[in-house]
TrEMBL record:
This is Uncharacterized protein. The gene is 106090968. Keywords: Membrane, Transmembrane, Transmembrane helix. The lineage of its organism: Eukaryota, Metazoa, Ecdysozoa, Arthropoda, Hexapoda. The chain crosses the membrane at residues 7-26, 75-96, 103-125, 137-154.
Amino acid sequence: MAGSKWPFFVAGFSIFFFSLSSLYYIGGLLGLYNFLEYTDDESSENSTETATDPYMAALDGEDLKSLSRGQVAEMTFELLMDVAVLVSSVFLYVGLKKKFPNFISPWLIISFLHVVVGSVWLFVIFGDDDNSFMEEAVNLFLEVFVSAMWYPIYKQYKAIRNPKEEIQPTSQCNAIREFDHHKTATAPREV
């Protein structure tokens, strides 16, 4: 089995990565990547409204885009999946630290579902959409990482759930010594 610090690394990495991923999808839903607002000197004197320049709205100079309902649904679903794994990763860390197997089991269930649903989502449903190569590579890395770490965490869960009984060497030695002292010597019988 992996070293005792390895499950803590998995929990910490999952908390960090899924926090960033959740923030990414929140930003995407809010449309933060689309809007660069500026105030025009002339319009700021007359009103406090901000204007959006459609040529500065996207990095490549495209007109201002809005999200379709499908994109909003996709980002919302991915956000919910990431928040679920984030919360279960916090439970995983606490369960490993306090040795509570009931806190580790949510991560096992949710990460398994995340890998299955994420793989179907990545390869079957949205295999040919307009995601960037980097976004697809990060999603693939995430699916491989979570699936590779599932079994070591499961082994740690089993070890915490069913600890092996250890025989104390001091009590075993004392029992043997007491047994040796109670032996009685027998003399040979004369017939």
